[in-house]
Amino acid sequence: MSRARQPPLVTGISPNEGIPWTKVTIRGENLGTGATDLIGLAICGHNCLLTAEWMSASKIVCRVGPAKNDKGDIIVTTKSGGRGTSTVSFKILKPEKIGILDQSAVWVDEMNYYDMRTDRNKGISPLSLRPANPLGIEIDKGKVPQKDLEALFPTMSGDFTSENFSATWYLIDNHSSTSFDQLKQAANYLRKQANKKNEGSLAYVKGGLSTFFEAQDALSAIHQKLEVDGTEKVEGSMTQKLENVLNRASTTADTLFQEVLGRKDKADSTRNALNVLQRFKFLFNLPFNIEKNIQKGDYDVVINDYEKAKSLFGNTEVQVFKKVYAEVEMRIECLRKLLLDKLLETPSTLHDQKRYIRYLSDLHAPGDPAWQCIGAQHKWILQLMHNCKEKYVKGQKSHPVLHSPMLDLESDMRHSVSRLSHTASLKRGGSFQSSRDDSWRYKAPQQVAFVENLTEIVISQLPNFWKLWISYVNGSLFSETGEKSGQVEKSRKNARQKQNDFKKMIQEVMSSLVRLIRGAFLPFSLSELELRQYGGWEMKSELAGQWLSHTIQTVRLSYESLTVLEIPNDLLQVIQDLILDLRVRCLMVTLQQTAEDVKRLAEKEDWVIDNEGVTSLVCKEEKCDLCLLNTLKKLLLLHPPPRSVFQYERTQDQVCELCIAIMKVFIDCLEQLSTKPDSDVDTTILSGDISSPDPFGGVHEDFSPTSEQRLLIVLSNCQYLERHTFINLAEHFEKHGFQGTEKITRVSTDSVKELDQKLFETYIELKADPIVGSLEPGIYAGYFDWKDCLTPTG
């Protein structure tokens, strides 16, 4: 049968130069009808058929062998076309080889080196080399983004050597614009490749027949030589020489390769170490990451990483891992100390305290950080209270007179009480804020400003302290990690055991608050030891009753703010006792100061008579009484109703005596005014005609009242006291449960009546003097005096 096809013609090769074993692509015409039709391929005179892969009639892929000629043609031989020709040539370059004993500064890729004579390690035939283009058609890459392919095939790969190879991915990635006909050609090519693998061993043998024959001849020659050597029986036989040569070669090889093998072992160790570092980089980088995140304040990240490392390497037996994990534990221990210091640091918000407690719980900190925080806050509150006292005691000593009792007292109190009332926002979860500035403190006495500041400290710090305890009791201080490990139950158990200790803390805070206020206002109610700790105030003058009343309002509002926290009443009982004692003290001081004010009323008498026939002196005395009644109203009508200040008999007796003293003082003032000499009367105030039918109807300015007029005015004032003032005061005391009103009324009325009788007698005596003076000469008319007569004789 004649050949129907034309001889092969090579028209191109890529690349057209390279070192031996370079992979090249040959293109041309009539390059065969299939892999079995290709029977010869030579490049530069070297037979390359063993590495040839027939792709199509116009394309063959192979590797260039170690040809003797530097440059030559590419000759293809086929069964159907015979020996072909070439219009191009290939140039073989001499490679710069790196010997097995030479050191190299770069990594030598040994996997790409292929020796068809000594390739024992791979154990595969040259035809099984993985092709770069398995379909045998042109590749068109890069039109579809890699990220989109990864999203479409999340668990697959477009690498045909991968176990998770996806043909769809490969086609989209490399042949998205390939026509259907070309894909059909590719399918045929794959079938041919499969058939070619089945014929691979036979082709391998056919292509290497010459090599096999040469090896057969060499082995036969060696065999004959060995037989001759064995029959001659001479010393220095070939086998002995060969053994010696092999031994020397082995020794020399060991000597030569010892350093190389050592470097290889070291390189293998380095690669293994790098692999370990890469695989377990999380653990090896963890100490540095912990330090970095601590500086940034990302404690949650640190805790999560630590939990992960603990679960993975907590029980490891690998020494390297144990060493690194020990360093991690050291960093975590430093973090525990840092968080504990931040937790115990004062001042601190409740939010930060809960956050640090949860961190320490997740880090399995020893002890009970939550209870330590409660103890630190307790000490902090006590320290604030004592520092407040020291501040104001020092201020009192350095500025002993900072206020005047007449400085807009009512306005300052009104603003201060309004500020304290703002604490009601605590019930709605708000914070304590002042509704005005603190300028009023510079007008108030140091003790009053101290109580304001002290109560502000307590009602601003104690709510968070109480809420921290409640969170500790119900276990809400701990995160979900703590709940899973039973931390909540542990916290509740600890809270039950420490409930009495916390109660003692609250009692100590309440006792310190009460004793500090007693030291400022009621020092006589403390012992000498308590005075040294809670006192230190200078008591040169008694505070005004209004300031004491203001202080009572401050303490009472603080008490109401604390009751919002649902603190047990038995813990707040000491504050109720303090309020009662302050009310009693305020009542006594108010009565004493009222007596002093009444004593000075005589200096303010202007002898102006109103329509009721009394002077302004009675009105001024009534104003003093009204001020007294207002103070008593604040003390007696507190809301909610506290215990009565008159519940103790001793208090009732003292109030009774002071009220009687006030009345007697005013009665003494009236008596002094009635007996005041005429020369001491201010004549620039009034003038009147006492001889007129209405002794007071002609009163006008620049009138100097006579002694008779003064007596009549004072008598009128006495009648008004008896009929109005004493009765009003008695009714007020009776209204509020005071039992001594009868005695006050009786004694005061008796005193007024006694003065009235005395002044009336004096007035009668004054009015009777002119009559007696005119009658007295007639009484003695015709009086016989023997001294004026002559002595009788006889």
TrEMBL record:
Entry keyword Cell membrane: no
The UniProt record lists the keyword Transport: yes
Occurrences of domain IPT/TIG (ranges): 8-91
CDD domains: IPT_PCSR
Keywords assigned by UniProt, alphabetized: Exocytosis, Protein transport, Transport
This protein's GO CC annotations: exocyst
Chain ranges of the Exocyst complex component EXOC2/Sec5 N-terminal domain: 133-793
Coiled-coil spans in chain: none
Biological process (GO), any one: Golgi to plasma membrane transport
InterPro entries listed in its UniProt record: EXOC2/Sec5 (IPR029175), EXOC2/Sec5_N_dom (IPR039481), Ig-like_fold (IPR013783), Ig_E-set (IPR014756), IPT_dom (IPR002909)
Role noted for this protein: Component of the exocyst complex involved in the docking of exocytic vesicles with fusion sites on the plasma membrane.
Subunit annotation: Component of the exocyst complex.
Family that this chain belongs to: Belongs to the SEC5 family.
Protein name: Exocyst complex component 2
Protein's organism: Latimeria chalumnae
Primary gene name: EXOC2
